[in-house]
Amino acid sequence: MSDQHVSDRHTIHVGGEWRAAADGATREILDPVDATVLAVVAEGGAEDTDAAIAAARAAFDQGPWPATPVAERAALLRRVADLLQRDREELGLLESRDAGKTVEEGRVDVDCVTDAFRYFADLVAGESGGRVVDAGTPEVHSTVVHEPVGVCALITPWNYPLLQASWKIAPALAAGNTFVLKPSEITPLTTVALIRLLAEAGLPDGVANLVTGAGDPVGARMSEHPDVDLVSFTGGLVSGTKVMRAAADTVKKVALELGGKNPNVVFADACATDEGFDTAVDQALNAAFIHSGQVCSAGSRLIVEESVRERFVAELARRAEKIRLGRGTADGVECGPLVSDRQLARTEEYVASALAEGAVLRAGGQRPADLEPALKAGYFYRPTVLDRCHREMRVVREEVFGPVLTVETFRTEDEAVALANDTEYGLAGGVWTADPGRARRVAGRLRHGTVWINDFHPYLPQAEWGGFGKSGIGRELGPAGLAEYRESKHVYQNLAPRPVRWFKG
User: Helix 70-86 to helix 88-99 angle, to the nearest 10 degrees?
Assistant: First the structure.
């Protein structure tokens, strides 16, 4: 990436050109580990957004990319994947520093991004020229073909900036669209790097455009702009509803992934052996505390059978207290900080409200006291286990997006399912049981877009990702993820036209 270096303040990409904000505004990007300045980027506004949309519109209406054969589009996506692996260490480190995660998590993210580009390359490369529809007569040739939507506005969150960008960019490009991308203003650095890699791979100017800046005005303008044909947004529920309202006047396509309040249901039979117990506890920790709980699919609601609750929660709390916090690049560190002071304050407020409502603190519940002096200003919070929780608590109902795990209990299978489904969200959930029949029954009854059985968190680029209820609309990944960026067109050809004589004349 070094030969593609662009000045920090030139992070807006329009029509193939890197530029500063039109009004010269900038934003400091802070390192969440110690609150020092990590970078300075352009703070784009409405003028920059309009310019980026105009470039994407021109590239779609007049440029070569929409008509580029799918084999050539696929080849470009594969070149991007190769460049990602070439720069894996540098990108992984940058993601670690910008988002606060461990460097190993950053490397895994780069690998997952690579997989997404390769998956969508393979998906479109293997397609035929459309679906033939039997019209019931040899005199008609009828096909359904898929065309790109047009100009796509892509808005990504701060927790997985590189990964979430790839889930939108790869299918958008595979389908032949152009786009304008707005990363989170908190964590834009790896997105800037990814746009550079697209240019290096040979993507025509104007196809990929980037505006670094705040949701208002940049994201708001993208959502309402009449020259945008689709908005794909990943983020919080409040912002997602604003995007939907802004897009309504122009009746553009909208895809939303708005997080979740995800149950992790543990039946007693999953803990009947020492190995089963150890695995279920270990996975409950992973479900809740990976990336400090800043994961849309985090298993933040532990729903455990009453007969094993005390043993399970005691061991979970013991292990949670031993999780090692620190700078993500340091040896032995297992968990980094929250992404910002705002997110830290939000987490503290949720824990305080839970305790006031009767929750029992079993682990964490405070900022760490044993950090080295250089990290005291960072946004660290101990992994927290709150026992004796119930559905009326805010911490159980609302998405915290921090290292906070709540514990609820059940006695019967029906009660477990009712608790797991008692949420406005429906993104993901887990079921732990040694009974295959129960596993299938419970998975079938859960109203969540992804259900893991005896596992938590893995996803596959070839399998759709998205949720029920207020977790959003539409899907990413899989064939449906590609379909979001396409319009279907029915082409009906009469091979033997003749007068209809409906009107006798």
Answer: 70
C-alpha 36: how far from chain center: 26
| Contact residues for 482 (Cβ-Cβ < 8 A; gap 6+) | 120, 123, 124, 171, 174, 175
- Compute φ and ψ for 157, nearest 5 degrees: -90, 175
State the alpha helices, DSSP H only, in 290-340.
Answer: 309-321
DSSP assignment letter at 177: -
Cβ neighbours for 461, distance < 8 A, ≥ 6 positions apart: 112, 115, 116, 119, 120, 477, 478
| Residues carrying an active site annotation | 257
Find the helix or strand (DSSP H, E) in which 301 lies.
strand 301-305
DSSP-derived secondary structure letter, 158:
S
> What pLDDT is stored for residue 5 in this prediction?
43
Q: Which pLDDT does position 129 carry in this prediction?
A: 82
- Number of other CB atoms surrounding residue 61 within 10 Å: 12
Identity of residue 3:
D
Quick one: CA dihedral 387, 390, 392, 394, positive or negative?
positive
Is residue 223 within 8 Å of residue 246, measured between CB atoms? yes
Point out the residues of the chain with pLDDT beneath 50.
Answer: 1-6
Beta strand segments in 223-278, E: 230-234, 253-257, 263-266
Cα–chain center distance at 363:
28
Residues in the chain: 505
What stretches of 100-182 show up as alpha helix (H) in DSSP? Answer: 103-125, 161-174
Instruction: Say whether 249 sits in a helix, a strand or coil.
Output: coil
pLDDT one-digit tens code per residue, 70-127: 999 999 999 999 999 999 999 999 999 999 999 999 999 999 999 999 999 999 998 9
Coil, strand or helix at 153:
strand
> Which of 418, 364, 361, 356 is CA-nearest to residue 391?
418
Asked if 382 and 326 touch (Cβ cutoff 8 Å), the reply is no
Identify the H or E element spanning 193: helix 189-200
Spatial CA neighbour of 151 closest among 34, 63, 220: 63
- Residue found under tokens 């949701």: 215
What does the alpha-carbon distance between residue 40 and residue 370 come to, in Å, rounded to a whole number? 31
Say how far apart CA 237 and CA 19 lie, in whole Å.
32
